[in-house]
Task: structure prediction
Amino acid sequence: MNDSVELIATLDVGPRILAYRKHGGFNPLNIFEDQAGTSGETVWRNRGGHRLWTAPEHKVKTYFPDNAPVEWEQLGECHVKLCPPPETSNGLQKEIEIQLDSVGTGVTLVHRVTRIGKTPVTLAPWALSVMAAGGVAVVPQPEMGEHPRDLLPNRNLVLWPYTDMCDPRWHFGKKYILLRQDATRGPTKIGLPHQIGWSGYLVGGVFFLKRYAWDPEANYPDNGCNLEIFTNARMLELESLGPLTELGSGESLEHVERWELHDGLGTFDAKSEQQIHELLQPILSAPGSYFAKVNGQLS
Result:
């Protein structure tokens, strides 16, 4: 922790980050209480929180049971590395480095995957944040263009077989794509090659946001996705992905996320793009902020 926030990771299973909040504040990460406090299971448990997977998704390989104790190493002030037992059946070793800024809410997470098998494998690092129920995901879109000046497409959308475009939880607006978590509805998911490189989640008066890289020359999984958003009746996931990379024995790759937390935002209409835009505008346009520099179209 620092003077602004605390971040809690368990050493019983994982690596899993269970909480990220201002002192005494609301935790936007979802923890499944019916799976909390247990370990040693022979099958994978979601549990909630933040985790590291690899893509593309596979019915067996992806759901390796990360239910054993995690080793940790202190690398500096507010800087630790979490290392679970190796995934011997997959030939992988995963690690997450967590470094809190000395001041403010900023957190840098380095997700690292090392090939410990003998033969090369192609995969992408996949960082998944399980968010608390009752909020709305916010994904900024490129600035609107006009016809006939802008003749070429500037965005792609990837759909999963269970995604219904008429689902009322989705809002495809001019400034944002919004996805509302709803306890009465089942799974839905989209992905996209997201050049803007940030997305967030509004819940409990808190705005959780994550930043991630976009490389136009890279080959991303799932038809080119570096961002995927999933929800079901229990939670919502913000998922960033790195490029597909061939890893030889002993080689590693890294995927970095940057988190921030903003509170005191009050209530909002999860279906109103304009209200959410007005709520976030002071954050996005604050003098000297990252967002003011790269997202001038949000003024």
Q: What stands out?
A: The two ends are 33 Å apart (CA to CA).
